[in-house]
Design goal:
Blueprint: H1 2-9, E1 11-25, H2 31-34, E2 41-52, E3 57-70, E4 73-89, H3 93-122, H4 135-156
Antiparallel strand pairs: 1-4, 2-3, 3-4
Length: 157
């Protein structure tokens, strides 16, 4: 009975989802559109962070950078900070950290994917679709790296 009551007190709510910062650049335009054969290489950089606000409110920011290059020249560059305000109630520190590091970024990702796809297409380029990302696996990997780093630091001291 106590477990059911504790579970009922746990709550996640999305207070707001918004674009915090956004940039699209196409430094080679219009010349890039006149090239007959081009096959850009695309690099994706993804990270997330969070900060505590008042009470149980947290801001989570998912930062995505997409850099498409052809012959070492940038074809387009997209930088986006997709953010959200999340209220978390009833979670211990470990649970809260996992939610902020995995669940919340996965909520923000579809908004970021849509913004990036629209800007690339409006920039005159073919459809660009970011593939789904497993934020649970990324979070687990970051936790493992942090544990390994802490263990190696402890061994050297």
């Amino acid at each position: 009975m106590a477990e059911e009551q504790a579970a009922a007190e746990k709550r996640i709510s999305v207070a707001k989802i918004y674009t915090k910062d956004f940039s699209f650049e196409s430094p080679q335009a219009p010349g890039v559109f006149q090239a007959e054969n081009w096959s850009p290489k695309t690099d994706l950089n993804l990270r997330s962070g969070h900060s505590a606000l008042n009470g149980n409110l947290y801001e989570v920011v998912l930062t995505i950078t997409v850099n498409a290059q052809d012959n070492d020249k940038t074809v387009f560059l997209v930088e986006l900070q997709q953010a959200g305000l999340f209220e978390l109630t009833g979670y211990d520190d470990a649970e809260r950290h996992a939610i902020l590091g995995s669940y919340c970024p996965s909520i923000l990702f579809p908004y970021a994917r849509e913004s990036i796809a629209n800007s690339v297409q409006k920039g005159g380029f073919p459809e660009f679709v970011l593939q789904p990302i497993n934020f649970d696996a990324l979070y687990a990997q970051s936790q493992q790296q942090a544990a390994e780093s802490a263990a190696s630091t402890a061994e050297t001291h």
